[in-house]
Amino acid sequence: MGLDRELFEGEVAEEFLCGICHQVLLNPVTAGCFHMFCQACVIRKMKSRVTKPVCPVCSAALSLNMTDTPIEFKLKLLNLSTQCSHNCGDAFVLAELPDHMDVCPNAPVQCHFTAQGCPRKVKRCDLRKHLHECDFREVECEACGFRTLYRELFTHQSRVRCLEKKLKQQIIRERKASSREIIRHREKLVKEHAKFDQQQRKRILSHAKSQASRKSERQTTAGSECGDSEFDFATTQESVFLTEDVINRHNQQRHHSEEAKRMEVSRQLTKTPHSSRSGFASNMCSQCNRKFIPQQNTQAACRWHVGVGTSRELYFRYSYVLIK
Question: Virtual CA dihedral for 89, 90, 91, 97, nearest 10 degrees?
Fold first, then answer.
């Protein structure tokens, strides 16, 4: 087959056209009748069983013993301006066609895995993508490392079951990694808690020291106002820590405070007004809500209103009955 006449600029002369395919000559040869044809067209014509191998112009018999065309004719043919037949947009003379075919991005090329059985031809610009997707490319099994064709990888994995083994190993590795991460996190938390406890102890100790210093300042201020200039700073420093002396001193203070409260309650009871049933010039008792006269009171009155002249023994007897 020759080249399409539409690829050339302007009209192409009849001498440059093949007599069989009527296209621009490609690898021209000269028959015995001096007519020129494409070499591929002559070979196809000779192998055809439908038509006779004769010249379509003069009906002379054709044979494979063709002669080469003159050099002057070839130079004229190679100087014709043409465009790429693969629509890449490049224009050049016909002599540069073989060099352009080696770099044309749209030219069809054979796959590199033809030896493995790939029959496809792709464009040169799509060859890299095809090589990454070709079913006849050689790959390595991700589970066991066995190298085979991509189309046979699934058969290998299903037969050997290496993918399942890899998945189990991956799960084991992930679990070990997660357990190590948990242990690392726990150790970090322990360190943070220990550091926080240490900071809390320092804070409490500093607060206790500040409280002790404030207390010592108050005691020194009170001592100076009362004329007492002596102050024991060691006692204040020791009160920060819970020693045995501090605990005993605290218990004594609590005992004294409880005794003071009891004395105060007894004093309030002794000051309780005496009851009376008379309503003249009387007061209202806050304990039994009865009126009484402090000067005119008897022992038969309310037990909260024991008379002024009663003995202390009667008072304690009434108090014991009340408490019981």
Answer: -120
- Would the pTM of this model clear 0.70, i.e. be above it? no
Q: Which of 307, 244, 238, 240 is nearest to 276 (CA)?
A: 307
- Cα separations (Å) of 40 from 3, 51, 226, 227? 12, 16, 135, 136
Separation of alpha carbons 261 and 280, rounded Å:
36
Q: pLDDT tens string for the chain (324 positions)?
A: 778 888 888 888 888 888 888 888 888 888 888 888 888 888 888 888 777 788 888 888 887 778 888 888 888 888 888 888 888 888 888 888 889 988 999 999 999 999 989 999 999 999 999 999 999 999 988 878 888 999 988 888 888 888 788 888 888 889 999 999 999 999 999 999 999 999 999 999 898 888 888 888 888 877 665 554 444 444 444 444 556 676 777 777 877 777 887 777 666 555 444 444 444 546 676 666 776 666 665 555 555 555 444 444 444 444 444 444
Q: Is 98 exposed, middle or buried (0-12, 13-18, 19+ CB in 10 A)?
A: exposed
- The long-range contacts involving 273-276, CB below 8 angstroms and separated by at least 24 positions, are 273/305, 274/301, 274/305, 274/306, 274/307, 274/308, 275/301, 275/302, 275/304, 275/305, 276/301, 276/305
Closest CA to 113 of 78, 138, 79, 140: 138
Tokens representing residue 205 in the block: 């100790």
Contact 55, 35 (CB under 8 A): yes
* Chain centroid offset of residue 100 CA: 51
The 3-state DSSP class for residue 160 equals helix
Amino acid residing at 169? Q
H helices then E strands: how many in the chain?
9, 11
**Phi/psi at 264 (nearest 5 deg)?**
-65, -40
